[in-house]
Amino acid sequence: MLDVNRIRSDFPVLKREIKGKKLVYLDSTATSQRPRQVIEAVSKFEETKNANVARSIHTLAEEATAEYENAREKTAKFVNAKEDEEIIFTKNTTESLNLVMRGWGEKFVKEGDKIVTTIMEHHSNFVPWQQLAKRKKANFEVIDIDEEGKLKEDELEKIKGAKLFAVSATSNVLGTINDVKRLCKIAKDEGVVSVVDGAQSVPGMPTDVQDIGCDFLAFSGHKMLAPFGIGVLYGKSELLEEMDPFLYGSEMIKKVDKNCAVWNELPYKFEAGTPSVNEAVGLGAAIDYLNGVGMENIRKHEEELAGKLLKTVGEMEGIRFFGPRNAKERTGLLAFEVEGVHPHDVAALLDEEGIAIRTGHHCAMPLHLRVGIPEGTNRAGTYIYNTKEEIDYLAEALGKIMKMLKG
Ligand SMILES: Cc1ncc(COP(=O)(O)O)c(C=O)c1O
C-alpha cells in the first residue's frame, strides 16, 4: 500500500496556501509536482558535477556524462527496453512523437498509404500524423469512441492495411485505459508500425514495452515527478537504425566533410545539440522515487481515487462526466461539465478555495468536438500525493459553486 501522508511530506509545494486556503493540487494530468528527492538530485548535480556531456575528457565532464547515461539506463529499465540505446532523450512527449513523424514517417510513408489514429488523442499524437498524411497525400483515418469513451470495437478494423497506427495508452480527458497490448498485436500481425503515446500512462502504471509489443513509446518527465524539459522516445533499435535524424548538429554527427556527413550511433544520432542534462538527472531521481513507491501501488492508488471521483463528483446532480464508469477502466482523472456554467468560471471559483484544476480542451479539440462541448471541460487530475479527503473537498466546493451560480 501507498503511504500518502509520508509521500505528501516529500513535496514542499503541497505545504503552500492559495488565497488563504490549503493548496489542493488536482492538475497533475498537466504536470506533476516534484518531491524533495528530485529537487535535491538536480541541485546536487548543479553544485558538484555540472559540465557538458560526451564532449570533454576532464573529470567533471566524465562525471556529468556518467550521470546522464545512468539516467538513460534507469529509464530503459523502467519501461523494460532491451537496450539503453533504445532510449532517446527529447524535450517532451510532443517532440518524441514529432521525431517519429519526421524520422520514420517522412521516410517511409508514401502517397496512398494509410495512417490511423483515434479521436481521443492529444493534439501531439494527432496533428503530426494529420499533417504528415496531408504532405504525403496519404489517407488519414480516425478510430471513433463509444458512449463510454472507449474505442469502438468494429472500428479497430481500420488498423488493418495501415502503414502506421498511433494511439494513446490512456486518454488525458476520458481517463480511458486502452488495451494497447491488444492494439499493438493487431498492428504487428498486419505489419503496421505502432506508436504509443504514454504521456499519461507511464506516470501511473507499470510499463513494459516488451509486453505491450509497441514499436515506439513516447512520454514526458514532467508528468512523472521529473523537471520540465526532459522527454523520452523509446524505439525498437532496428527501427531507430533505419530512421533519419530530424535535427542536425553537435554530437549527433560522427564524421563530416564539405560534402557529406555520417551520423553517430544510437541513441546520439537523435540527440542534436547540448541535451537536457540536469533534467535527465532529475528524471533518474524521479524514477528512483516511483520505483520506491512501486508502480503497482501507484496504479492501485489511482484506481481508488478514480472510484472516489466517480462516486462523489461524478454522481452530483448537474454534473456530467466523460469516460468509462468503472474505475478499473480508467486513470485517476475526471473530466466533467457543470451544466450551464462555463468551465473557466468553475476553475476560477475553485481557485478561490485553493483547488487547482485544469479547464479547456486539454489539447484534445477533436475529442471535445466529438462529444459536443467545444468550449471544453473541467478536469481534476490526481497523482500519488492526492487523498480521498481532497476529493471530498472538491465535491463540497463544486456544490457550493453550483448553489451560488444557479440558486
Ligand atoms: C496524452 C498526452 N499526450 C501528449 C501530451 C503532450 O505532452 P508534452 O506537453 O509534455 O509534450 C500530453 C500532455 O498533456 C498528454 O496528456
Can you walk through the features of this model?
This protein has 407 residues and is an alpha/beta fold. The protein folds into 2 domains: 140 residues, Aspartate Aminotransferase, domain 1 (Alpha-Beta Complex), CATH 3.90.1150; 253 residues, Aspartate Aminotransferase, domain 2, CATH 3.40.640.10. Helices cover 38% and strands 16% of the residues. The protein contains 13 helices and 17 strands. Strands 4-10-9-8-7-5-6 form a 7-stranded mixed beta sheet, with helices on both faces. β11 and β12 form a beta hairpin. The chain is globular. The structure holds pyridoxal-5'-phosphate.
List strands and helices in order, with pairings.
Elements: H1 4-9, E1 17-18, E2 21-22, E3 24-25, H2 36-48, H3 59-79, E4 87-90, H4 93-108, E5 114-118, H5 127-136, E6 139-143, E7 164-168, H6 180-189, E8 193-197, H7 209-212, E9 216-220, E10 231-235, H8 237-242, E11 253-256, E12 261-263, H9 277-293, H10 295-311, E13 319-321, E14 333-338, H11 343-352, E15 355-356, E16 358-360, H12 365-370, E17 377-381, H13 388-406
Parallel strand pairs: 3-15, 5-6, 5-7, 7-8, 8-9
Antiparallel strand pairs: 1-2, 4-10, 9-10, 11-12, 13-14, 14-17, 16-17
Helix pairs in contact: 2-9, 3-9, 4-5
Pyridoxal-5'-phosphate binds at residues 30, 92-94, 122, 124-125, 168, 172, 197, 199-200, 220.
